[in-house]
């Protein structure tokens, strides 16, 4: 049952791997993990990070949106988007 959109409208269903246990990582662990994956922080955003390789962006990388598991720090609930080169430039994410 979808409670937000009227019946008949498109909906998005997401599935992800189930982890039996895990704890929220510390903020510094999330930041280190994002930097390892070549994301850079976007100071003028709402805690956003940007990946220039493919124009990917994420917001709200807070501890309650990650789990620390045997596999490492795993995202479980992030808002994501992909920006075109023009959008990245207009948003100040990359130099013209």
Question: Order of SSEs, N→C?
Answer: HEEEEEEH
* First-last Cα distance: 45 Å
Oligomer: single chain
Output the strand order for the largest sheet. Answer: 1-2-3-6
Helicity, as a percent range: 10-25%
What is the percentage of strand-forming residues? 15-25%
- The overall average pLDDT, rounded, is 80
Structural class: alpha+beta
Main pleated sheet: 4 strands, antiparallel
Q: Please, could you describe this protein's structure?
A:
The chain has 96 residues and is an alpha+beta fold. It has a domain of 64 residues. It contains two helices and six strands, in the order H-E-E-E-E-E-E-H. The chain has a four-stranded antiparallel beta sheet, with no helix packed on it. A hairpin with a 4-residue loop joins strand 2 and strand 3. The N and C termini lie far apart (45 Å).
What labels describe this entry?
96 residues, alpha+beta, two-stranded antiparallel sheet, 17% helix
Provide a compact summary of the structure.
Helix content is 17%, strand content 24%. It is of the alpha+beta class and 96 residues long.
SSE order and pairing:
Elements lengths: L26 H10 L3 E3 L5 E4 L4 E4 L6 E4 L2 E4 L3 E4 L2 H6 L6
Antiparallel strand pairs: 1-2, 2-3, 3-6, 4-5
């Amino acid at each position: 049952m979808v409670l937000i959109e009227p019946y008949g409208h498109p909906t998005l269903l997401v599935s992800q791997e189930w982890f039996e246990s895990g704890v929220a990582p510390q903020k510094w662990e999330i930041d280190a993990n994002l930097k390892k994956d070549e994301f850079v922080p976007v100071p003028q955003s709402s805690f956003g990070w940007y990946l220039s390789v493919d124009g990917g962006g994420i917001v709200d990388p807070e501890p309650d949106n990650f789990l620390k598991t045997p596999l490492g720090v795993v995202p479980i609930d992030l808002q994501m988007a992909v920006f075109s080169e023009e959008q990245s430039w207009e948003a100040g994410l990359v130099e013209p």
